[in-house]
Amino acid sequence: MGAALLAAFKILMEKNAAGLGRLAEEFVAQRLCEMGCEVLARNYHSRFGEIDIIARRDGLLLLVEVKARKGGSLVSPFEAVTPGKQRKILLTAGQYLAENPGPLQPRFDVAAVYMQAGRAVKMEYLENAFTA
């Protein structure tokens, strides 16, 4: 009984985290559009990983990792983009660029979204968060 309850709790927490991530990604996509960006892809997958949002603006190809945190979190969303995560994003970006060649200059950005009561309340956006 205890193990089953723990497993059910874990599934519920994973679903809540996935839902939180989707809300944060939607929030960032809307903000990017408001900033004059054209969103080209969402949740682009490769065998290496995923890029949350791919957009373009002013000759740049923005490859955006979105991280959401609830208020009071002990870890900054930016800290969650570890060197290992960066490597996966870089490899995935390589595949995207091979499939979609063009003149745009790639830039790797990170958007940190702060959530409260199930909604996004604040975004911090770090351009050139890391390089290839």
How would you describe what is shown here?
- With 132 residues, the protein is of the alpha+beta class.
- It has a single domain, classed as Trna Endonuclease, Chain: A, domain 1 (3-Layer(aba) Sandwich).
- It is built from two helices and five strands.
- It has a five-stranded mixed sheet with strand order 1-2-3-4-5, sandwiched between helices.
- The longest helix has 33 residues, at 2-34.
- The chain is globular.
- Mean pLDDT is 87; it is low at 6-15.
Largest sheet features: 5 strands, mixed
Spatial strand arrangement across the major sheet: 1-2-3-4-5
- Going by CATH, the architecture would be 3-Layer(aba) Sandwich
What's the CATH class label? Answer: Alpha Beta
Which residues form runs of ≥5 with pLDDT under 50?
Answer: 6-15
Distance between the termini: 49 Å
Mean pLDDT: 87
**CATH fold field value:** Trna Endonuclease, Chain: A, domain 1
Helical amount: 25-40%
Number of strands: 5
Radius of gyration: 16 Å
Instruction: Please indicate the percent range of residues in DSSP E strands (runs of 2 or more).
Output: 35-45%
Tell me, what's the shape? globular
Query: What count of helical segments does DSSP give?
Result: 2
Structural class: alpha+beta
How would you spell out the order of helices and strands? Answer: HEEEHEE
Count of the separate structural domains: 1
